[in-house]
Amino acid sequence: MGSARTIVIGGGLAGLAAATRLVEAGHEVTVLEAAKYGGGRSRSFHDPVLDREIDNGQHLMMGCYHETQAFLRTIGSEDDAVYYQRNLAVKMVKPGGVLVEFSCPALPAPFHLAAGLLGMRGVGIWAKAAALRAGLMLRNEVVRPDDNETCDAWLQRMGQTLELRGAFWEPLIWAVLNEDPLVASAAMLVAVLDRAFMSTRDASRLGVPKRPLSRLYVDHACDYLTAGGAALRFGAAVREIRVEGGRAVGVRLKDGSTLDAANLISAVPPHALLSMLPAQATQHWAFVDVQRLDTSPIINLWALVDRPLFEGPFVGLVGSPLHWVFDRDQIDPLPGSEGNLLSVTISGARSYIDDDPASLEGLFESELRKYFPRRPFELRKFRVVKERRATISHAAGTYHRRPETKSPVPGLLLAGDWTRTGLPATIESAVKSGHDAAAVVLDHQPPRRP
Ligand SMILES: Cc1cc2nc3c(=O)[nH]c(=O)nc-3n(C[C@H](O)[C@H](O)[C@H](O)COP(=O)(O)OP(=O)(O)OC[C@H]3O[C@@H](n4cnc5c(N)ncnc54)[C@H](O)[C@@H]3O)c2cc1C
């Protein structure tokens, strides 16, 4: 039987962020990760078809990802590893290739947003007026949504025109909440809008990782943790959280071995946590709520085409099931590339998750030819990556099911993008949850000092 002061279960962003904070404070940490690699739902791997390292899905960041930026700085990720826009700018394309452009000028927040909406190219004056009304809501001059109101109901209440919904709101909602605007929580959307648009101008800028995700943070985090004395164990799946006398005291691994710990931080998704808990604990109302959390899939289509289809790092497609198209060769050019590698995101992809690669390839070809008719392209290579449980579903009325950092079992802390961070399940939520769990451990136990 081994012992460790804090055991972190899960080596995704939340687990690595928690472990990093603890090691930074001189704490003794063991990270147990079931897979042979770290990164969880944001990782990269070598793909033999494309002969490149690709991400499991294209990840976007925002200037308001402050916890993520602090984490990347601590582990020594290079400053230029994420491409950040100078000011928020988004290009959307309509069928036939007509552009809708939204770009915020260099004014202080929230005037940059107001000026960006008024200057939007490709939408009419009523749409702009309606957008400004939503902006007023953000300034608390109109009733804000609660978690029971859907984005659809909120957009109607704000008088948002169909044109503006299609060109601005709906792509934003799919991207931020990974859920259908008809069911997604408006309060969750507003939580992001607040952070992005109501603080500083920089907060709303979008960031695209230039490096594959595992190079961006997993390698650096592992190096940092190992140098700080943490034990990192990959291929070490936890079968059971051991609870004795009502307190979490350690874990049992799949290989049968046990480890003791003063604190446990679970940083795994909901289904994995439930499978590790003793049956009695799962009857607590907090865990019954966790059982009621649903998930939402994301599909990423990777396609090598013979020419660029648009200028810039990414565009959104108005009214298409393919929501966003990223051109990896314009983000991080690969010397000797045989064309342009596109990464296409289908969020909330329930209708397509069981489709075979051939029909998704057909969907890709027909949609992209419809949106870029003046760029007849040749498709050279194609690859599908499906994440069935990409995030929890942010359906209206479900936020209260997300658990707090302190679980009902003393000694067991909960982290993960899906815990109650006040944010949708994103990179920032994952890192914040890890930092929050570490803060509880550090408050309760003074760190070991040499
Ligand atoms: C395709 C896709 C696109 C996305 N796009 C964006 C985006 O653009 N912007 C954004 O901000 N966010 C995005 N996200 C969300 C983001 O990836 C997640 O919020 C984040 O990666 C979650 O990290 P986590 O550490 O909470 O969980 P995970 O990454 O799921 O980590 C949990 C870890 O626990 C391990 N584990 C599970 N069971 C056990 C066990 N029994 N024992 C030990 N280890 C175990 C798993 O192997 C995993 O490594 C996207 C997600 C996906 C899937």
Would you write up a description of this structure?
- The protein has 450 residues and is of the alpha/beta class.
- It folds into 3 domains: 2-44 and 212-293 and 396-444, FAD/NAD(P)-binding domain, CATH 3.50.50.60; 110-200, no CATH class; 295-392, Polyamine Oxidase, Chain A, domain 2.
- It has helices at 13-24, 66-75, 111-118, 125-138, 151-157, 162-177, 186-197, 213-227, 270-276, 285-291, 328-331, 357-371, 427-444, and strands spanning 2-9, 29-33, 44-47, 52-55, 61-62, 82-84, 89-93, 99-103, 206-209, 231-234, 238-244, 247-253, 258-266, 295-305, 314-317, 324-327, 340-346, 379-392, 412-414.
- Strands 1, 2, 10, 11, 12, 13 and 19 form a 7-stranded mixed beta sheet that branches.
- The model has no long low-confidence stretch (mean pLDDT 92).
- The structure holds flavin-adenine dinucleotide.
- Residues 9-15, 32-35, 40-42, 56-57, 59-60, 237-238, 267-269, 272, 276, 298, 300, 387, 390-391, 416-417, 425-428, 430 line the site of flavin-adenine dinucleotide (FAD).
